[in-house]
Design goal:
This is Transporter substrate-binding domain-containing protein. The protein is an alpha/beta fold and 297 residues long. It has eight helices and eleven strands. Helices cover 28% and strands 20% of the residues. Helix 2 crosses helix 7 and helix 2 runs antiparallel to helix 8.
């Protein structure tokens, strides 16, 4: 998802780690990651027309997807793109989405607008935000997946967040939706009853501190955890447990198309709906070991 971050709040690309510009991180992404680009996205764009060819790239039997291959959710988003193209009886072509920008996302929106106008039809791996003021040149699709933030521990006696003693420190993905949900709940407790939170920008370091006993639990986007441990968390000695009493946070992962192409957006939405209704989307989530569920009907 270009959803590489961990659901930065609010993210642009579906990179919910929140460290990549989602969800650019969410809108990721980011995309998830779930980041700081959302504000920039809302500002829209004022690019000179000579930089925008505004030519449609769909060549009869082909649709071109933009994807940030460095994002946490990229393999899943790539698979979804292939499935969308197949549902539309088209060949899927993939090209690189803008990446490598700093957390302030300076210049990202200009680059994205150029790419969307000149190089690709659909930007995959976007962290969708309800009632978000998208720029006039961009239009979001419906969500194709809902991927949660998870709570991982090593202690076999913990079955939910409520079981973790307040004397244990908790790690959270810095600037993420999951961190925000935890902070909101924790601050409602009497000061003496609150957990101490340590924010992390590096998921691998957070896992390391969990394993060495520094942390009693860690809250981060599910795909970020899988990447940090190189696969199944259980095989790495971690247990994913209930976040209760904190409500579990989800990143809504979708795509972005040019606002001038309403027909394409409707076709993408129909394809996503079909993949959800026939069970294909859930199968893809299971294929990648995601604990999420298909997007809302």
């Amino acid at each position: 998802m270009p959803i590489g971050s961990g659901g930065r709040c609010p993210p642009l690309q579906s990179d919910p780690t929140g460290r990549r510009p989602m969800f650019k991180s969410l809108f990721l992404a980011a995309l998830m990651t779930l980041g700081t680009v959302t504000g920039a996205l809302a500002q829209g764009g004022g690019l000179p027309q000579e930089l925008q060819h505004n030519t449609r790239r769909m060549q009869g039997d082909q649709i071109t997807f933009c994807l940030d291959e460095q994002s946490v959710g990229a393999p899943f988003d790539h698979r979804v793109g292939e499935a969308i193209a197949s549902a539309l009886l088209l060949k899927a072509k993939f090209t690189r989405a803008p990446s490598g920008f700093g957390l302030d996302a300076q210049g990202y929106l200009d680059e994205l607008q150029i790419v969307m106008a000149n190089e690709c039809d659909v930007l995959l791996g976007i962290s969708l935000q309800p009632n978000f003021p998208y720029p006039e040149w961009a239009s979001p699709t419906r969500a194709y997946a809902q991927v949660p933030f998870v709570l991982a521990v090593t202690d076999p006696s913990y079955n939910s967040l409520a079981d973790i003693p307040k004397t244990r420190k908790l790690g959270t993905a810095l600037g993420s939706i999951g961190e925000y949900a935890f902070i909101t709940y924790n601050q409602q407790l009497p000061e003496a009853d609150r957990w101490k939170r340590l924010p992390y920008a590096d998921a691998k370091l957070m896992v390391k501190r969990l394993k060495d006993g520094t942390l009693g639990g860690i809250i981060l986007w599910g795909p970020s955890l899988s990447r940090a441990v190189g696969g199944d968390p259980a095989k790495a000695g971690l247990r994913v447990i209930d976040t209760s009493p904190v409500a579990q946070s989800f990143v809504l992962v979708g795509a972005l198309v040019s606002s001038r192409d309403t027909f394409l957006r409707s076709q993408i939405d129909d394809a996503i709906a079909s993949l959800i209704s026939d069970g294909s989307m859930q199968a893809m989530l299971d294929e990648f070991g995601y604990q999420g569920k298909p997007g809302p009907q």
